[in-house]
Amino acid sequence: MAKNKRFDLYTDGASRGNPGNGGIGVVLYDEDGNVFATAKEFIGVCTNNEAEYKALILGLNEALKRKCRDLSIFLDSELLVRQINGIYRVKNKNLQDLMKEIRKLLSFLDKYTVRHVGRSRNRVADQLANDAIDEAQV
Question: How far, in Å, are 4, 7, 90, 98, 128 from residue 86 at the CA level?
Fold first, then answer.
């Protein structure tokens, strides 16, 4: 049971071309820094921003499914971090709909923070996103 523990969630979206074939990857780490769960998915043709949003949605769903209610969320998309934290507005209609879904999922958490992290610190989620694209193109 994951209740009352803090977890680190890393997500990443990749789009080969913008728009292009997209993949998303998620890694959930427990308090000790061990991999608790991973997920990846091919999402078809999308923009890079759409992939980033969909990766976070997948990550939040995976965390909630495992009863993780206290999350430190790390994203390498500075735009998405600033939009979630209310610094930037979401102007794109497609992204507005995805942001509504993100906000709904975040409302199920007891506690969370969302921070930007450099790509070098998000390698596992990035690899999973790219693996999802590679595996779909077989």
Answer: 27, 23, 9, 15, 28
Q: pLDDT tens for residues 97-110? A: 999 999 999 999 99
In the block, tokens 């921003």 appear at 49
pLDDT of residue 115: 98
CA 134 to CA 138: how far, in whole Å?
A: 7
CA dihedral 70, 99, 52, 50 (to 10 degrees): 160
Domain ranges of the chain: 6-136
Q: Output the pTM of the full model.
A: 0.96
The class that CATH gives domain 6-136 is: alpha beta
